[in-house]
Design brief:
The structure holds 2 protein chains of 2 kinds. Chain A is α/β, with parallel strands linked by helices. Chain A is built from 5 helices and 11 strands. Chain B has a single domain, classed as 2-Layer Sandwich (Mth169, Chain: A), CATH 3.30.1280.10. Classes of the chains: A alpha/beta, B alpha+beta.
Chain lengths: 222, 81
């Protein structure tokens, strides 16, 4: 699986993501600076976590205007898989590639801990390696992860099976509406999620529950 | 020409910061504090002198970057307009 990781000023999880992609796929991913205007021919594009542009104005707002995002949008429309984690999810909502928005955590605190996620659908290129309803461990680390969308949008997302992950009610770390942790676009080739699967891929990290997302994406390439 | 832009969360969007401020005011002994909503205030200096054109440009700015219209409303005030 050929993959690319977009690097913005203020990204800080790109190394974890590059490591995870190489470790799991066996192919070295390409790091792409946000000022680039085109993307190499890859199977998966990843927007990593961090605090692009210091979260100025709104999280992901300035990064969403980076030159590379036009290319990401075009690739996404053509069906190339795009994964946005944490700040990457915020960037995807800011650019309108994914619906909704990420608000300040309901309790106002930065949250850095392990949560439990329910696989809300395994009918996607990102979740096919999990079983429907499987509950997995996954770390979160964010200040603005409180997912919000209006009722119509939420009903549509659920009706179209586009909610990929939900926090278990008792571990919802940020007040996200309907416990939503990750959503997909209408073609289901773009996934945005607040938790960090790239940080739970080998036993030394305390578990391997995050591998399934990368292994699912890999399976659909092979 | 100077523009003043107020960006506020839409009704129905949870504002935890506003809630915390309301709580703090209450703690300080201010009576009768109801809902508090926090927003953003942005000043923009423009070379444009035509208020109609300036407003159109500012609306475009708000729609494309200054506000996230999924969760926020914006109001534009123009000096001397």
């Amino acid at each position: 699986m050929k993959s690319a990781v977009i690097v913005f000023p203020g990204s800080n999880r790109e190394r974890d993501m590059l490591y995870a992609l190489e470790h799991i796929s066996g192919h070295k991913p390409i790091a792409v600076w946000h000022q680039e205007t085109s993307l190499p021919d890859v199977d998966l594009i990843v927007l990593p976590g961090g605090f692009s542009y210091g979260d100025y104005l709104r999280t992901g707002a300035i990064a969403g205007l980076s030159p590379i995002m036009k290319a990401v949008k075009e690739k996404a429309a053509k069906g190339v898989r795009v994964l946005g984690v944490c700040n990457g999810f915020q960037i995807l909502t800011e650019t309108g590639i994914l619906p909704g928005a990420l608000l300040r955590n309901a309790h106002l605190k930065f949250v850095c801990k392990q949560v439990r996620l329910e696989v809300a659908t395994n009918a996607s290129v990102f979740t096919s390696r999990y079983t429907q309803g499987q509950v997995i461990d996954c770390p979160v680390a964010h200040h603005d992860g409180n997912y919000f969308a209006d009722e119509d949008t939420l009903n549509r997302l659920e009706g179209e099976d586009r909610v990929a992950f939900r926090y278990t009610p008792e571990t919802n770390p940020n007040g996200s509406i309907r416990n939503i942790a990750g959503v997909m676009n209408d073609q289901k080739n773009v996934l945005g999620m607040m938790p960090h699967p790239e940080n739970l891929i080998e036993p030394a990290q305390g578990g391997t529950d995050g591998r399934g997302i990368f292994e699912s994406a890999l399976e659909w390439v092979a | 020409m100077k523009a003043r832009i107020k960006i506020t969360l839409k009704t129905g969007v949870l504002d935890p910061q506003g809630k915390a401020i309301s709580h703090a005011l209450d703690q300080l002994g201010f009576d009768g504090i109801g809902d508090v909503r926090q927003g953003k205030y942005i000043e923009v200096d423009l070379a444009e002198t035509d208020p109609t054109k300036a407003r159109a440009a500012l609306e475009d700015m708000c729609e494309r970057v200054l506000a996230n219209t999924v969760i926020e409303n914006y109001a534009i005030e123009l000096d001397g307009a």
